[in-house]
């Protein structure tokens, strides 16, 4: 076949147009989804590895589109961030999680703290501490019952405003968790500048644990560092018994993963709490 840059360029442009159209289309649908109530929070248990008991819940956003069906967060969260829709969506997540927590308590269920994910764009849009304070007041929730999970990538552009916000949240008593630890940008230095209460070891390390000493060394050092800054360590992506044994051998006491439970709808979560489910 002959190399023809003109054709390649046309194809490229067409593909790009197609992609842009799809992105715009999906973003419009997402904006509608928020208003139409198509967004839902699922909950996944965080477990005390020794006893198998639920110690906390991570809220994970789900979009169920009436025609397209289930659209994964890995697809729509980036669009929400690009379009700044993550602002109102993040507000909704905060309120919904607090509302659910309040409802579980009012129903007399043995509630656990709840973690929500907050993206950098939300901090850039502003007022995160004020919004959190307001939500805690509105639903009468103690600050230590709420954990904000912030991905490590936030430190790629750590502005002064972000630092102030994280300090304000810490001072308020809300727990801060460093998510996806060990991926991408190294934030070891930043651990000293912020007061994180929890470090989540990314599942990419957990799933390689049986394959070599490097991932083991990483997990081990995270546990040592966490102890030094007085933070909890949570292992993500525990799917196999062997992975649980491995992280425990390295000193990890808390974990989360499909072995225990996939993220479940709120009604199912209530049942797990009511049953005081343990694994
Ligand atoms: P994340 O915060 O790292 O959440 C953990 C992801 O790992 C979830 O994917 C969860 O379903 C999945 N997971 C849990 N246990 C296992 C396991 O044992 N094996 C495997 N392979 N995966 C497991 P999910 O729900 O698709 O969410 C993907 C990402 O989307 C989240 O990653 C988070 O970055 C983002 N996200 C989800 N909800 C929100 C939200 O409300 N706000 C923001 N800003 N981001 C969110
Ligand atoms: Ca998370
Ligand atoms: Ca703190
Ligand atoms: Ca994670």
UniProtKB/TrEMBL annotation:
The EAL domain, residue ranges: 23-277
Segments crossing the lipid bilayer: none
Signal sequence range: none
Name under which the protein is recorded: PAS domain S-box-containing protein/diguanylate cyclase (GGDEF) domain-containing protein
Portion of the full sequence shown: 538 to 816 of 818
């Amino acid at each position: 076949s002959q190399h023809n840059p003109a054709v390649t360029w046309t194809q490229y442009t067409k593909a790009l147009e197609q992609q842009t159209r799809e992105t715009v289309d999906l973003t419009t649908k997402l904006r509608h989804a928020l208003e139409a109530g198509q967004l839902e929070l699922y909950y996944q248990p965080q477990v005390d590895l020794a006893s198998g008991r639920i110690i906390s819940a991570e809220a994970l956003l789900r979009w169920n589109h009436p025609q397209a069906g289930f659209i994964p967060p890995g697809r729509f969260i980036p669009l929400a961030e690009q379009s700044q829709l993550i602002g109102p969506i993040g507000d909704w997540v905060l309120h919904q999680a607090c509302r659910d927590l309040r409802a579980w308590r009012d129903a007399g269920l043995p509630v656990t703290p709840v973690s929500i994910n907050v993206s950098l764009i939300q901090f850039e849009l502003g007022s995160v501490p004020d919004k959190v304070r307001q939500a805690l007041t509105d639903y009468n929730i103690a600050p230590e019952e709420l954990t904000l999970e912030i991905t490590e990538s936030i430190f790629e552009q750590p502005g002064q405003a972000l630092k102030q916000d994280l300090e304000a949240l810490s001072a308020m008593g809300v727990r801060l968790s460093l998510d996806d630890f060990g991926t991408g940008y190294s934030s070891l230095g930043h651990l000293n500048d912020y007061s994180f209460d929890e470090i989540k070891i990314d599942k990419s390390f957990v799933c390689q644990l049986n394959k070599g000493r490097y991932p083991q060394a990483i997990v081990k050092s995270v546990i040592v560092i966490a102890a030094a800054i007085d933070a909890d360590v949570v292992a993500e992506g525990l799917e196999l018994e062997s992975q649980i044994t491995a992280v425990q051998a390295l000193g990890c006491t808390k974990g989360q993963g499909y072995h225990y439970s996939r993220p479940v709808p709120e009604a199912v979560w209530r049942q797990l709490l009511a049953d005081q489910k343990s694994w």
